[in-house]
Amino acid sequence: MKCPHCQAENRRGAKFCIDCGQSLLTELLCPNCGKSNPPRSKFCQECGHALVQQAPAPTKPTSPEPTSFVGGRYQVKKFLGEGGKKKVYLTHDTVLDRDVAFALIKTEKLDDTARARIKREAQAMGRLGDHPHIVTVFDLGEHEGQPYMV
Question: In 22-111, where does DSSP find H-type helix?
Answer without folding.
Answer: none
